[in-house]
Structures are given as C-alpha cells and as structure tokens.
C-alpha cells in the first residue's frame, strides 16, 4: 500500500511543471521527454527500493515466524508450567486443608491439655497441701520400720545365739557319742578276750575231763567228740566277732580353702582327718558303706560374707536332711545330723541345694563326718 501512494505522488507532481507562460509544442515535448526520463529513473529507483524493502520485509517475516515459533514453544512450556502450577496449587490446597484439620485437632488437644493442666494444678495443690501430713506419716513409718528392724536384729541375734548353743551342744553330744563308741569298742574287745579266756579254760577243763573219761567209756568218748565240735564252732564265732570289732568304720573330712563363688553339685572334702575302713573317697566326695548296718553322719558348713547356702546329706540320690545358712549376717553356720540304715555298697554324700560359697581355714571349719554303729550284736548277747 505505501508503494502505490509513492507512485501516485510522482505522477501528480510533474504535471504541475508545465509552463503557464508559453504554449509552444516544442517546449512541451522536451519537457515531456525529460519528465518521462525522470519518471523512469524514479520508477527504477522505486523498484530497487521496493526490492530492498521486500527483502527486508522477507527477513522481518522470517524473523517474525521464528519468533512466533519460539513464542509457541514458550506458550507450550508456559502452558505446561501452568498445568504443573495448577496441580501444585491443588496439592497445596489439599495440604492446606489437612493442615487446617490438623490445626483444628491441635487446637482441640491444646484445649484438652489446658483442662488437664488445670486438673493437674488442682491435684498438685492438693498434694502440696497434703505433703506435710505425708511427710509426718513417712517419718512415723520410718520410725516404726527402724524399731521393727532393731527388734528383728535383736531376735535374730538371740536365735543365732540359740542356734550356736544348740550346735555346740550337738558337737559335745557327738564327741560324747564318739567317746562312748570308742569305750564300747574297747569294752567289747575286753569282754571278748575274757570270754575267750573263759572258753579256753572251759575247753581245757573239758579236754582234761574227756581224757579222763575216755579211759572209762567209749560212749562217753563219742559224746565228748560232739561237745568238742560245738566248742570249736563257738571259737570260730568268737574269732569272727573279734575280727569285726577290730575293723571299725568312721571318717572326718573337710575343706581347707574357702570359696566365694562355689556353686557345684557335690561338695568334695579333699582334706582327710580320719578315714577308718577307707569308706570315704576324697576324689569323688562320696562315702560307700563297706558293710550293712546303721551309720551316723554329721555335716557343718560356714558361709563366706553375706551369702546363703543350703546343703543336703544325700543317700543314693535322695536328700535326707538339710543345713541352712542364711544371708542376714556374715559367716553363718549351718549344721545337721542323720542316722541312716545302709546296705553294703550304698553311697552317702553332701550336695548343694541352693546358694553359693563356703568358708573354712587351714584347720577345717566346713566338715563332713560319719561312723558305723557296729555293736548292735551286743544287745543280742
């Protein structure tokens, strides 16, 4: 459109150049030729300018097309970002809704906490008011407990003293029993020897009488042979009795090293004081009866520090009696005694029931003793 306007202006402007003073044809032709030449040059220049303008316009159009493509891409990216933003806004709306819900819940909890704090404050006030009375009651309770503890300690001391007294009496009785057994064994030996002497005298007398009477009667000789056989049987029985009385069974064993953490099963007493008859095995801690009969067993155990210990005298796997050393004070002593009827081959030992540790010294304090009451046959004679 601008091109047409320029051409129209060029066509109009030259027409006004005709001279109004002359009417000659020559001048008009010359002027007309010059005007045509001038118009041709102008037209050429306009065409060149149009070409340049068109080329510039093409470049501008291409640039605009490129910008349009870039704008479309940017619009796509913007639309995508817009959609993402819308999604994010939707998510944020959901989060805001949940936050509002959570905030409402927290506000409700805050109100409830405030009510609880008020209730706790009231309770604290009541506790503060009751604290003096509670402190007074605590002092009274501690006083009562201390009095009971003192009373318990006093009673415990009395009980311990009584137990120690009983243990001392039991030890004395056991010593007296051992002494009586020794004296009884000695008296048995003396009595057997006296009876043997009497039997020897009687036998010698009978032999003399037999020799005297043999000379007088053969029937009497037969009778005397029978009597001699009976006397020989009596002598055999007496010899067996003497052999049995000389073979006494008894032992006393102990431990000479204390232990603060012993928690085994069988308590082995390796230190042997006496082991007549070799019935006790210091390696296994077990006593094996060499003969049938009645046996007496005695055990003493002392705990180390404030530990407790319970020991059993066991016969062939069955607990018979039990010692008790509690942990109320240090170095508690537990003792007990058992009279058992054994068959040859039966075993007796000391076993831990519960607790740990024992105390002793180089001269044994924790000990195990036993002996055979082998004189029951005297009651029959």
TrEMBL record:
Q: Which residues form the C1q domain?
A: 244-379
Instruction: Read off the InterPro entries from this record.
Output: C1q_dom (IPR001073), Collagen/C1q_domain (IPR050392), Tumour_necrosis_fac-like_dom (IPR008983)
The stretch of residues making up the signal peptide is: 1-17
- Coiled-coil intervals, chain numbering: 61-116
Q: Name one GO cellular component term.
A: collagen trimer
Keywords in UniProt for this one? Answer: Coiled coil, Secreted, Signal
What SUPFAM superfamilies does the annotation carry? TNF-like
Main location group: secreted
Q: Which Gene3D superfamilies match?
A: 2.60.120.40
* Compartment(s) of residence: Secreted
Record-linked Pfam families? C1q
SMART domains tied to this protein: C1Q
Name of the molecule in the record: C1q domain-containing protein
Q: Which organism is it from?
A: Magallana gigas (Pacific oyster)
Native organism taxonomy: Eukaryota, Metazoa, Spiralia, Lophotrochozoa, Mollusca
